[in-house]
Design brief:
- This protein is an alpha+beta fold.
- It is elongated.
Length: 133
C-alpha cells in the first residue's frame, strides 16, 4: 500500500448535505478499491480557472489515502463516471526524507600569498612594444 492524495472538484450547485454525500461516495470508492481514506480536507467553493462542464466555480476537496498501486486506474475510472465530480487528480505522495543530522565541515581556509606584479613603463618596454606617435 502506498500513500496517495486526490484533489477533486465537486459541482457547486450542491448543498452542504449533498457535498458530504459526494465525499462519502468517494471514500466508498476508495474502500471498494482496497484502500483506506486517511484525511479529508474540504477547501470550499472557489472560482475555476476555466469553465468545466458549464460550471465557473467548484467545491475543492483534498483527500489523503492509501491504496495498492495497481488499483489506482480502477479508482480513476470510477471517479470519471461519478456525476458530482467535475475533475480529479490523483498523485503519489513522496515519503518524508529524514533531515540529515551530520553537519558538513566548514570549507578549508585558503591562504593567498602576495604575488609580485611587475610594472613596466614605456621606458622599460622593449623596442617592439613601444608606441610611436
Amino acid at each position: 500500500m502506498r500513500d496517495y492524495e486526490v484533489l477533486y472538484i465537486v459541482r457547486p450547485d450542491l448543498d452542504d448535505d449533498k457535498v458530504q454525500d459526494a465525499v462519502k461516495r468517494v471514500n466508498t470508492l476508495i474502500e471498494r478499491s482496497g484502500g483506506s481514506a486517511d484525511h479529508t480536507n474540504l477547501w470550499g467553493k472557489r472560482k475555476l480557472a476555466y469553465e468545466v462542464k458549464h460550471q465557473k466555480e467548484g467545491i475543492y476537496v483534498l483527500e489523503d489515502f492509501k491504496i495498492a498501486p495497481e488499483r489506482v486506474p480502477e479508482l480513476e475510472a470510477a471517479l470519471k463516471i461519478t456525476e458530482e465530480v467535475l475533475r480529479h487528480l490523483i498523485v503519489r505522495k513522496q515519503p518524508e526524507k529524514p533531515s540529515p543530522t551530520a553537519v558538513a565541515p566548514p570549507p578549508a581556509e585558503v591562504v593567498l600569498e602576495p604575488v609580485a606584479v611587475e610594472s613596466r613603463g614605456a621606458a622599460d618596454a622593449p623596442d617592439g612594444d613601444r608606441e610611436e606617435r
